[in-house]
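Q: What does the predicted 3D structure of Queuine tRNA-ribosyltransferase accessory subunit 2 look like?
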Amino acid sequence: MHFVTKISSSGSERVGSMTGFFKMPSAVVETPTAALLTQGGSVVHLTADVLSRVFSDSKLLWVPLSNSAHLENGLKAQGKGVARFAGLQEHFTCVTLQNMNEVTPSGHFEVDKVPLWTKHGKKMISADRYMDLMEVFKPDIILAIADSRVSLEKGYKRIAKSVDRTTNMLNTCVERYKESKELQNSCLVGVIVGCAQSRKFEDNIQNFLRHKDNLGGVALSGLTDGAEESNDVPVDKLEAIFKKVSNALPKDILHVVEGCWNPAVILTAISYGWDVFDGSYAVKLSNLGHALILNFDVTTNIETSYLLNLNDECYKDQFVPILESCKCLVCKKHTRAYIRHLLNTREMLASVLLSIHNLYHFDQMFYHARQHILTNTFEVYKKHIIKQYESYRSLKLKMDVAETELDHSIEVKKKSKLVEEVTNNSHKVNCNSS
């Protein structure tokens, strides 16, 4: 795989393309884009047939080992890689260690090994073992193994160990990559961690630059440990990191961001030249029963939320599409009321329909980003999307405050009633004693 920058806008944002895939040399995946998160090699909630109806072109599939390592024996027997094994040979795969949207237990490290948490429990993985698996999975893109399950709020000692492990593991991955005949058609991507500590961050950058001739890209990780609060880092703090890391690295390689990030964070990262995102955000929304309803028309002054919580009873009588302007399969045929009914009755079809809509709509966000970069209007588009996100956050904050005040009021009333009952009972006892 080769990455080529097609055009840069007035800022650092850019439109690029991934080309030169061995199995489909003429195929092109345009960036910025989001990969499609998989589970067991298949896109979450979608069969291969449904996926082909949602997207007619080739996509990048995000394959975490945490939910696909158990495929190893089957992949060995077949010998043609994970995309072919899953019946998705027209798409391209990027294999990594963990799904960063999943919360995992902390600790459990060994020297030059990191834990891989699977449905069968914890497995300690070394860089050599990881590259053994890559030779079996045969992905188009390999994210080097790293100790990246760490948030920005961790202390210096934890981050220092994260950087040291990641550095040593990258050295091993590069050596194995150079020696492996099976991986010559794959692109190896190095991982950067330790952004919260300047000195260790510089160590990680310098080690990456030593291997730059063998690396086709860089992945920024170590920003979140999967916990909800670590995915809610202020945009301005992340913006400084996106800028710092991007400026420290070569511009002619693929730039990848791991983590379950909202549209405001994603558009901010794109403005500093980041190209690929792991796609876990759309899956998270579908699992929660939420639907994306972003407005992409920058000429409209939008003040509404960018999300619908279709679990809410208010949608039970709304016989309209999730989004009138959306061209996805779901919005053409189904209504908010129907999907709300499916969620209420816990039907699996609810997750399927929401996934179709959210994956399509999320992909459209990147499509419009590319178009605005090409026309040098990306900054207008970014502000337009961020405004919708902030409207949602503001409304959610007000609702949370109101709910907290209501809970407090109910608690005060309960305590007042309890005190009254105790007082009355005490008075009765005293009267009886008299």
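A (community wiki): The structure tokens above were generated from the sequence. The two ends are 93 Å apart (CA to CA). The chain has a mean pLDDT of 91.
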